[in-house]
Amino acid sequence: MSNKKLSLSKDGKELLDELVYSLDLDRPLVINIALAKGLTFEEELSFDATSKPKWTIPENIIRDKEFLLFKHLIISKRGTEITEETIHNDMLYYIELGIRVLSKAIQEKNSLEDSRFVII
User: Fold this and answer.
1) CATH code for the domain defined by 6-118
2) Rounded to an integer, what distance in angstroms lies between the CA atom of residue 22 and that of residue 30?
3) Which residues, 6 or more positions from 2, have their beta carbon under 8 angstroms from its beta carbon?
4) From CA 6, how far away is CA 54, in angstroms rounded?
């Protein structure tokens, strides 16, 4: 089991590239961190995920046990049974949300803080 192709917004892609640079991590790892952060974020944060052109998150970035974990976390968060299509749509939403939460945390850090500690 793994994720199917997902389309990240243009703004999300730009923020993702900034995170990859700031954290000095590989893009797939930052996407996984963003998904986890988006799932754990409890506050309201409005954002526009419709900017174009879209960037395709390749298949198999999230696979096997990671996919199963995120799938069950999404089901648990919703509290209802959902389809595979809904799971992938929710994954994209939480990735977009997580990217914005991580980006905001890095922007608000002071100059002495390490970016990797700020995102925790």
Assistant:
1) 1.10.1220
2) 11
3) 59, 60, 61, 62, 63, 64, 67
4) 9
Place of tokens 């970035």: 61
Q: What percent of the chain has pLDDT over 70?
A: 100
* CB-count burial class (<10 Å; 0-12, 13-18, 19+) for 24: exposed
Nearest alpha-carbon partner for 2 in 56, 54, 70, 55: 70
Tell me the whole-structure pTM to 2 decimals.
0.93
Q: How many CB atoms lie within 10 A of CB 18?
A: 16
Instruction: Specify the amino acid at residue 60.
Output: N
Counting every residue written for the chain, the total comes to 120
**Neighbour count for residue 93 (Cβ, 10 Å):** 17
H or E, element range at 31: helix 27-40
For residues 19 and 102, is the Cβ–Cβ distance under 8 A?
yes
Q: How far apart are CA 120 and CA 118, in angstroms?
A: 6
